[in-house]
Amino acid sequence: MRIAALAAALTLAAALPVGAQSPDPRLSEVRGRSGINALPLLQAAADNVSHLPGMRKLNIQRMPTQDTVKRFCEVTDPLEETHVFMTLRRMKVDEFKNCLLHGTRDMVELRLGRSAIALVNGVDGPVFDVTTRELYHGIAAQVPVHGKLDKNASASWKDINKKFPEWPISVIVPIPASGLRPVFDGLVMQEGCRGVPEIDAIFMSAPRVLACTTLRPDGKVVEMPGHTPEAMQHIADPKTPVIGFVSMRILQENGNLLHAFPINGVKPTVETIQNESYPLTLSIYAYVKRDAVSRLPGLRALMTELTSERAIGPSGYMVSHGITPLSEEGRREVRRDAHNLRKFSR
Prior knowledge:
By secondary structure, this protein is of the alpha/beta class. It has 16 helices and eleven strands. The strands form two sheets. Strands 1, 2, 3, 4, 7, 8, 9, 10 and 11 form a nine-stranded mixed beta sheet that branches. It has a two-stranded antiparallel ribbon with strand order 5-6. It starts with a helix and ends in a 6-residue tail after the last helix.
């Protein structure tokens, strides 16, 4: 489908007589998409190559992560397709299969660095060492009660652990469309319910995951983008008990307003994220359509920039956006993948 559409567009361009209207400029622009948390990274790299001689337009836009992946896979019209996207999680198996179904078969995966999600409170509020199991017990709609799953009735964190303060449960979590939500569901909720007998007793995988990740509906858990002023106001306000999950970029940018909870005894720092001892560590990925690289020089330049030392190295500009660099060998490997256009598969 994509090959036919591209061939038609190029044939039309070649057939234009001298003096006729020039081909659609969208044929030569590089289009990138990203969710709000990874957007500054992609935009920074695009800005750094936009001045290069002969560089065509770089069209970088914000779009919810799940919509971005869907568009990357399904839109194959050369005038509209997405050539590159960035995300705070790896492409899921079902998303990769959807790409194959719609003819997007050749792509490159670039693992650019590490980051994390953090559970934070305002600097004047308490933080305490909490485990993923305790978070599951505080946030899930149903939790084990006398050997069976029942409605979560916990009102305060002290109900979860007697060592915790008498602090009402009120948590902001990422919205479903956010790139952080699958990370939250996997690293907090599913990890927190791992090994719970009442969950393990559920035979089928899908209901088991649903039992782990369904949030309590009583108003104690609110889905809200962590970067919004409203969310920040709720979390930072010392008069409210609200705590929330945010990206490391948000934590770094608001270090004077927020502090992070230790998770399983480990706080999020450059060292604990780099060695992955912090439980809520994630990786930053970019995905690129291989067949577009040969016809869009700007896309090759953008890949080179994204994997350059000045971008993802220890002193690179992405560090200021919450990225923890990979090891030296890890950075060499991603540069090889970019140079060789190593084909991604799942």
